[in-house]
Amino acid sequence: QVQLVESGGGLVQAGGSLRLSCAASSRTFSSPLMGWFRQAPGKEREFVTRIMWNGGSTFYADSVKGRFTISRDNAKNTVYLQMDSLKPEDTAVYYCAAVAEVGGRWKYWGQGTLVTVSS
Question: Is residue 46 predicted with pLDDT exceeding 90?
Fold first, then answer.
């Protein structure tokens, strides 16, 4: 079973930046679509952004558009989430996810990394 491992979470002041990374445990793992989700305390998990592996097409939730940037390094089988202009409402556990095939569900999930934004 492929594992996704996130890193880069932490505590930051409002207006600051963080970069999250998500690496697949297997070098042979390949997914056509990877993304980030988040879950704030007491709330349901929500979609943040996703990126196609072939061509790099991206899509963002309105709440992060213009502040967050998703990117990928195919050679390293890693996806990144650059988060700028962070707000206290961005505080959440951030999860990396991947699909197994085009049109498939989000099958693979990381363990999550906590991002805390102080006001």
Answer: yes
